[in-house]
């Protein structure tokens, strides 16, 4: 079944006439994603890749029935665009750009929670349900339909993990990019629970990294799950105090190191993996 | 973006948070003039973008103007954790009766702001959290909510502020919270909030960290002279060069040059090298969609690093393209040349075109490729990591 998006999702693109918006709309359509239109204030009436452009999200939703949105806008415009979308009835939002002001993401999250919407990002490559929908910037090549879900704080790790699952025959139900920014639209918890309730997903691989406490927070939900959770965490050997790439990836003060995160996840019932090849090995042992 | 103590205190002043009288000085001579106005005994506080100043000898008390000048002279020669001391904040030495901690930060996983307070000021709050967690008061609050003094009055009482001053203490906490929201902060701390013998509450120190990604919408900070600054302390020459080229890069202490794509795999690739018995010489991220020129520069950093004995390269083209990757590597081989063994794997977006570019270049000039081992999607990245470790050992053992 997959989670959050499938071939029936009606996907709109906010910022569809911008460089990134246009480029990736074309790619997403080529994959077979059901893109129904997009917004760009002032460009209502135009078309991008044969899809209608509207001035506002409400107009787009009323005209196309869009229920999912992908945002390709500069960081400073994201908060308003996200709140507009959520209030117009969008239930799932993908925030691709990075460097969203932290306070803005707090507002976006509050709006999403109050209206029962799900947000992923900032700095996410997106989400893909192989064979049905690809939202964002992920390369098609790594993915194939299957039975394992993935949720990751890193885009590049998503590709390697999916590639490993694809080539070992497990395939993926849905792969979710949580994002690399410090404050994310969703935590592991919401996504893990969606996988738990998805019959088609027989196991989940969660990919974490140094910085923040998202992995620690996941220990609240993992013991409640029947679906096996595998965990791979980047930064076991990362030097403390140094920011490594993602805005959110820095071990600060006494905050959890990657070793601590992996240990806590293990204690909560997750199956730790050190390398990608350990993932299919572990799945086999678990009889997935 | 971390602010200097004196900058944080300027913001405190705007929000009517009481601070000691002070002068900012940039030379030992200026100190003497400052003491004329402030009067000894004074505290001389090095203004650097790092904590641990006291332990590093960056805070000194002077009983007279002469002593202050001598101490200042020494302080201006100091470098604290990679930050040279270029200014001092001169303040009167306070008669301290009690010290409190008050701060506001973000609970990332629970999506709230948090007001934190403690009756144990003057020490590291995380240390207090570990040793005396019962002595810490926390109030989570949603970013869209207003903090009222009736909320913070209870906090002021709990941390032991005397009855005659709890109203003022409550107001200080509210002001700190408002300041936090106004400037898009990640952390603001008054540690210690001092109660003097003469029953004054004063913010004796300031620590303010702002969200880099929101600085653009605070032009008033620029007007105050507060600009984006480099906070990495002491950068190695290579890190400095990488920064100039716009490449996220960190020098580490190993001998395997890391040339991966994506920050996430950059971090994990380094872990893999450790798992197979090697040590990375660096962390590096190419950023999404790097140009061939940028990729070539990345390789220059690695090849010219004398510590590097082998190079590990990986590219999983997502937003980035394998043909650009191949072009970058070929450009580097032609223009610069590879002096160490390199093993690399390339797959993803445009990989066939990337392979074609390599094959063509190799046919044309095979000697350029003599140190390059090239793999595609069929080789697991773990094998590439093992091979890089092996190559480094062989190269290190080979007499030069």
Label this structure with key terms:
heterodimer; A: 288 residues; alpha/beta; 7-stranded mixed beta sheet; 9 helices; 14 strands; globular; B: 400 residues; alpha+beta; 6-stranded antiparallel beta sheet; 4-stranded antiparallel beta sheet; 13 helices; 37% helix; 24% strand; elongated
Q: Could you characterize what this model shows?
A:
The complex is a heterodimer of chains A (288) and B (400). Chain A has 288 residues and is of the alpha/beta class. Helices cover 32% and strands 22% of the residues of chain A. In chain A, the strands form two sheets. Chain A has a seven-stranded mixed sheet. Chain A has a seven-stranded mixed sheet with strand order 9-8-11-10-12-13-14, sandwiched between helices. In chain A, helix 8 links the parallel strand 13 (229-234) and strand 14 (271-272). Chain A is globular and about 55 Å long. The mean pLDDT of chain A is 94. In chain B, the strands form five sheets. In chain B, strands 7, 8, 9, 10, 11 and 12 form a six-stranded antiparallel sheet that branches. Chain B has a four-stranded antiparallel sheet with strand order 1-6-2-3, with helices on one face. A four-stranded parallel sheet of chain B has the order 14-16-17-18, sandwiched between helices. Chain B starts with a helix and ends with a helix. Chain B is elongated and about 85 Å long. Chain B has 400 residues and is of the alpha+beta class. The interface between A and B is large, with 60 and 53 residues.
